[in-house]
Design goal:
Length: 139
């Protein structure tokens, strides 16, 4: 059974301990303490059979909201990333949060495809990273 939980620091640590090679492309916690989640608009952990399978957050920084998402290595290709992004964007839309930004490694083709499907467009590129933006006008 799959459950979406508002993340605690312990759940995030547990996810990172089991995420495997997925942390090679999700480097958010390389330079931040786990307690940073207390500053997020929302932080989720998706579980399956009480195992943390995906992580996601929305983090307000100046005039932008940054989306971060990671699916554990053992759980890639099973729809967990799609579910997590759906939950994060639903939250953002309910709160009227826009624009939403993210960065993704250029070789992470499955993530790029997912981001394009949900309305993100590339706004800037570097040698190894795409910066993407999703903007929604709320009336």
């Amino acid at each position: 059974m799959c459950k979406l939980l508002t993340a605690t620091t312990q759940r995030v640590k547990s996810f990172c301990e089991s995420a495997g090679k997925s942390l090679e492309t999700f480097r958010y916690f390389n330079s931040r303490p786990f307690t940073i989640i207390s500053n997020h608009l929302v932080t989720y952990v998706l579980t399956h059979d009480d195992k943390e399978v995906a992580y996601g957050h929305l983090d307000a920084e100046k005039s932008h909201i940054w989306l971060g998402i990671c699916v554990g290595e053992k759980y890639l290709g099973q729809g967990y990333g799609k579910e997590m992004i759906h939950q994060l964007l639903t939250y953002a839309d309910l709160k009227g949060a826009s624009p939403i930004m993210l960065s993704v490694d250029k070789d992470n083709l499955s993530a790029i495809s997912l981001y394009n499907k949900v309305g993100f467009v590339t706004t800037k590129t570097t040698k190894s990273v795409y910066y993407m933006r999703r903007e929604v006008t709320y009336e």
